[in-house]
Structure formats: structure tokens, C-alpha cells
């Protein structure tokens, strides 16, 4: 269940409830709001999301657990100069992580899913990772159904400049704005702008149903157990997109500007002489420790390792990466 939406925007959100399209809220099909979502206090999540959306025109949504908190702190340090934190809505797996984020980053809105079993490091292609993606699909589905434009992103990413102007400029070109996976004919699920068109709502609703259907396959698996590729969210969503489900239209961002983890594997001269990316996703590598090690190597880790606390920004690192020659 969601709990304790603790943000100074809550007061504003409650005042905005009268402005929210009550007809839309009352007609959300409840049979899609299973397990953790079904016990949400009426309108609280919707109120927070609507408040952000009405003010900014988009809600930046991401999901973390306790093991991912260092990535969250590093990303918030990285992006603090952009002034976008009030647009961010973070779903956490546990209340302690929610409280940590609220204390350190008070501009950010947070929601706790209260699923402590998913609070540790979850590795790609493991059952725990799939369980997290099911919760992500459900939560985003709820936001889309009330007409919120969702920008889905992940914290294991460096933003060399603010990507929002470019991403939002693409929204007229498709129901979804996306990046491709490693240049292949496949769509990444960790960096998506989801316009709440009827096509997107229908597509994501069907995607959520399919994700929920695979939960039965995970019932006897521990979080560290490996799963088959066919039940990964990226594979399931791409199959729907590829077949044109609900008449969905996807606009793809340029790969050279929205790079993935393959960028780190390029020769130094290629990285230096090629176009400067807007963002670089730290993927195509498994395990939090390896991700952090690589980010540090390339100057893409923004926490001060010499500080007594583990959430202090390395201002010099941030300045260096945001400069033209960073």
C-alpha cells in the first residue's frame, strides 16, 4: 500500500482536489488497482501528481529501494542546478527511504510502497527486479488514467544538461517519446515520456495487465532467482509497441544525445571527439557496486566521499560535468 505522502505540496494538493476532474478519478477501474495500490487513501496519490502536473505540465517519476539511495542522492546533486526537483515524484519500497529523501531533498514528492522485501539490491533478470517493475507498471498506470503526463526515468544516469526541453519538444511527434536499447530495434523502459493519450492509456493498461499476470510465475521464486527474458518489462512492452497496439505512435530521441551505457565502452578519442550527450544512462552493467565504480571513474558520481555524511554533494564534480568541457 502507499502510505505517508509527506511533502509540503500536500497542503496545496488538497486545495486543488476540487479542481481535479472528479469524474475521471471516480471512474478509474478498480479491478486494475490490485495488491499495494488498492489500499491507497482515496485521491491522495492523485492529488499530489495532479498538483505537480498542473504546475509544471509533467511529472518526473522514478522508483527506488534502500539499496539505491546513493544513486538518488548522486542524481539529485547532479541535477540541483536545473531547478527541477519540485517536478519529481519518487516511489520508494520502504518508509525509511522515503523519510531519508524527504529530509535531504524537501522539494521532492515521495510515496512509500511499504514493500520491505524489495529494499535490497535487485539485479536485472532476477525475480526481485521483475517484482519492482510490476509495481512500477501499476503505479504509472494509475497516473496515466487521471491524465498526468509522466516522464519515467531512473537514478543511475548522469545528466550533462537538462534533457526536459528536448524531450518535451518531441511530444507532438508521438504518444510516447523513448530511446532505443543499444541502437537495436527495441525500446528502453527506463527513460520514457508518456503522454496520457487514449493510445498510451490503453497500451499501458494492457502492459500492466500482462505484468500482473506474470506474478504467478514468481510465487515460488526468491528475489535472487534468475528469470527468463520473456517476462521482463522491456520485452513485454516492446512486443505491444512493435505490433502497434492501440495505434500507439513512438518518437525516438537521437541516440548520440541520449546515450546508454555503451558510451562508456567507447575509446577515449571517440568520446572526446564525438557529440556531447545530454544524458548518459549507466546501464549495460549489473550490480550497484559496479555501476558506482564506473560512474566514479568517469567523474559521474556526485557524492563527496570525504564527507562525514553519505549524502553530501561533491560540488566540484557537479560543476565539472556541467561545464562545456566536463
TrEMBL record:
Domain Nucleotide-diphospho-sugar transferase residue range list: 84-294
InterPro entries for the chain: Nucl-diP-sugar_transferase, UDP-D-xylose:L-fucose_XylT
Pfam families: Nucleotid_trans (PF03407)
PANTHER family: UDP-D-XYLOSE:L-FUCOSE ALPHA-1,3-D-XYLOSYLTRANSFERASE-RELATED (PTHR47032)
Name the record gives this protein: Nucleotide-diphospho-sugar transferase domain-containing protein
